[in-house]
Design goal:
- The structure is a single chain.
- Helix 1 runs parallel beside helix 2, helix 10 runs antiparallel to helix 12 and helix 11 crosses helix 12.
- The protein is built from twelve helices and eight strands.
- It has an eight-stranded parallel beta barrel, surrounded by six helices.
- It is α/β, with parallel strands linked by helices.
- It has one domain: Aldolase class I (TIM Barrel, Alpha-Beta Barrel).
- Helix 8 links the parallel strand 7 and strand 8.
Length: 297
Amino acid sequence: MTIFEGSAVALVLPMFDNGDIDFEGFKKQVQRMIDGGVQALLVNGTTGETATITIEDEFKLLDLTLELAKGTGVKVICGAGSNDTQTALKKARYAKEKGADAILVVTPYYNKTSQRGLIQHYTTIADAVDIPMILYNVPGRTGLNISVDTVVELAKHKNIQAMKDATDNIAYAMEVLAKTADLDFDLYSGCDDNILPFMAAGGKGVISVTSNLYPEAVEKLTQLILKGNIKEAQPLAYALDPISRLLFIDVNPIMPKAALAKMGVCGEYLRLPLITTTDENKKALFDAMDEFEKLGY
């Protein structure tokens, strides 16, 4: 029961210079992504700065995303992670009630847990809420890695259907793919710089930050790979690579917001402790964007 195949976008959250959420700017960006051909929308992920917004704001943003995606065929994935299992359950229940297609649940951060604790955390949510779940492994953010054995154990649950792998470790992805090959379980890349090798190895797609800028190009890349057109995919993957790397030379989503401000989509404002990037970083990214856009993808 694959949730989506191809590209999903990890939506940014536009803000005003006083830190208030720009809901109209958010709706504009969601519509850009739908028009750009993404297969799925991830709302309330890391790129959406959920660490500094309220749960009420998260619910409102999900409602807006669902309304815009209604009737389009584009899937809606709701970020439902927390380092408190009860809070994650509250988010998962709301997503189920409102009709989200899936939830993305990050590993607990700061207080963290053991591998045994991870199994209990995820199983508690999956048992209580009948909605497809995507595990989210991003140890660079959380300080906690989901071991391959833990992934395999969790993949046996009927509601735990996939994992977003942001380890940027192809060897890890290969081992997970090999050991879950006989299970109804999919893998999505969480790193735009490894889409080609990740999907060539068997991943079903990417949950992408770069899609916020170039949804058509990232979707085209994923579909070429899914169809086995690796030679045709290679030039596009190589062209996107400098941008995907430069989007992470500062803390995400600082660079994507700078890029979207350049494109006239929204402001580059963030909530503290995140701050705007340096002029040097902007120049590097903007130069790469200009070079990419000259290619006509």
